[in-house]
Amino acid sequence: MITFIIQRVLQSILVMLTVALIAFGLFRYVGDPINNMVGQDTTIEERAELRERLGLNDAFMVQFGRFAANAAKGEFGFSYQHRRPVSELIAERLPATLELSLVSAILALVIGIPMGVYTAIRRNGAMSHAFMTLSLIGISLPTFLIGILLILFFGVILRWLPTFGRGDVVEIGWWTTGFLTASGLKSLIMPAITLALFQMTLIMRLVRAEMLEVLRTDFVKFGRARGLPDRYVHFVTALKNTLVPVITITGLQLGSIIAFAIITESVFQWPGMGLLFIQAIGEVDIPVMAAYLVLIAFFFVVINLIVDVLYYVVDPRLRVDRAGSGGH
Amino acid sequence: MKHAKTALRAALAGGLMLGAASAANAETFKWAFQGDLQTLDPHGLFETMTLGFQRNIYEGLVARNDKMEMEGALAESWENTEPTTWRFKLRQGVKFHDGSDFKADDVAFSVERLRTEGSDMKVVAALIKEAKVIDDYTIDLITPSPNPILPLQLEIFYIMDKQWAEKNKAVAATNVKGGDEGNFANLNANGTGPFIVKERQSGVKTVLTRNPNYWGTIPTNVTEAIFTPIDQDATRVAALISGNVDMAYPIPVQDWKRLEDASGVKPLTGPEARTIFLGFDQLREELTTSNIKGKNPFKDVRVRKAFMQAINIDAIKAKVMRGAATPTGLMVAPQINGFNKSMNTRLPYDVEAAKKLMADAGYADGFEVTMDCPNNRYVNDEKICQASASMLAKINVKVNLLAQPKSKYFGKVLAQNNYDTSFFLLGWTPSTFDSHNPIASLIACRGGEDKLGAFNLGGYCNPKINELAAKIQSETDQEKRQAMIDEAFKIHQDEVGHIPLHQQPLSWGVSDKVEVVQRPDNVFDLRYAVVKK
After folding, report:
1. Which of A41, A83, A279 is the closest to B123 by Cβ?
2. Which of B199, B200, B282, B471 could be disulfide-bonded to B207 (CB atoms 3.0-4.6 Å)?
3. Contact A44 B178 (CB under 8 A)
């Protein structure tokens, strides 16, 4: 068990280094940061001198080595645009992204699962058809379009909800939360729906497919034969057995929600990490881009690690196989 | 006991009334721009938006009013006591936001701060050889050579409090490189201006409140101003129409109709002082991106003339700019000091004449060239390039358009990449609002001892212009100076050093509930923002 985890952690470090290396390789194609950091009247000599000061003239591997060494110490440098330490910026933006992602994940589960169950039980009902059509829209429409349509309808035409930003936030230590103010909650609605829609349809379709499968199995028929009420058969006997893959997928999708938040955040000007990243790309803020990509890689790696460890704990067969084959 | 109750009730009523009164006077103004100011440090970045925003918090010795006229701000008067000395009499009784007095010391300190490593305003620092404090309210600024327009050039030089900077370890300007992590002046401010920074979250939100002790009388009734950067055009427009902000800019030209149709908002437009122009590489012996080898067609003035005559500027105005551009024959806008209306003429649009010029120059069959163009820097920049390319096709020039985001574009065409371009589109607003700036930066020969022409991307060169630039810099007689400016622009015009296209439009969206003044350099000045009752 311990060797397995150590093995996995080492692999994870390798993955993150690779991500950082590839990211660094790509940055040279994003453009030149210098012109975004000076005014038009700044002389050529001053620009050259600034480039030298920032170490942008160093060889690629030297720049990367410096970044990796600092990142290992938890230092991500200094943002060109904000003129502040990147770690400070990320800490400031992290709560917004995590709150949005969490609410979206919960929305996706709370709405997606019942819809999935319903469409599986009433396969030919009018409502089921409506849900299925809706889910098709949710899966095929791009996120930014959904966001803009929501803004247009609920923000511009009906004027029920704020069209951008996070509303008023309350500080709790270094964390900021929008959960405790009315404007914060109102601001959360549209971005959360936008971000949740794709995951929701995914979960709904997954639950439906699994339910259809399970409802055909013998133990469900047996339950019915015993005279158990339909409600019990559907929601306890059947649903319980469909949830294992749902939980796996949800866990893995949490990473993508955080990563996909980039689009939702930029449409709603949601002040999270995704927006920070998009702004950084526009202005070629290399330290911020690098830190964000490594951080997202870190999220994925950690989630995968936890999932792997859980499998290992839950499924005894894995342990036996591994002992025999000596790792995969 | 009864008395106590009455007293309490009276106090409550009084409190309520006070509350009501302050609510009636509280005017909040919310606005959005496509990006954020990069820093609160007034010497950190020489860029229009950043300096324009800081103007609400910090002040310079002089300022521009709503009609763009120069007037005294922290200086009450100024005079040229000697050719190289400008004496400024400072305003008395002005206090910084933290309550300390404004004195000549602070001016001298701020000049020195301009010279520190992190400062992006060393160009301004170079204008001043020495700052001599005469007494608490008099200061002499010594220039390296006679400089008639120094006050004009100092409009964007803001004064910081010496004691405050020393106390908070912000004596040096915020350094982009870091090493002075959390330079206090980057996120905090202490100016003399009409607004005080209440909250600053970089990239998210900046909240200002009215300075109750402001020395001047200004039209604004705004007590709290909230600024949010909104990157996406669609989101910014929606925020305005839905009433979430009172003002937003820029608004895409194609969205003007939407604002006109929506209730409660309208587009606010006008000519910007930014001139958009095309330029050619006239320096290299052979163009890097052309099929013509062994020679450079742009060295031939006939080819440059042909290009200019092939471009239908009225079509660009009507189709690309939706009627909202001001075609120009000069490299400067009417708002710029030195603009001469009688010289603002263009070679006429004439494809036949252009074809003939091309044939005379030996390029009847045209040639191929790559055009560099930004796609997120100026109003409809990429579309202007596309239109130009299709117009040039009529004189058999095949333009390969390379339109890129500004970071990539500027990284390619500027000095640090050895001006790697054959044909390009660029825009320019003179930061001083004086013609000397574009003459020195855009059309003077580059690479010489005088260090002029840093943004002369095509390397157009007539040494006479450099001579004139030096004289214009120090000529104090306005008439003689204007004659020299005219001469420089005339030479450039005759030789078609660049093809001026137009001044692009300013495009703001404003709620009917507020009144604002639109400056031709796209700066929004809170001093003139009024919330209607």
Report:
1. A41
2. B199
3. no
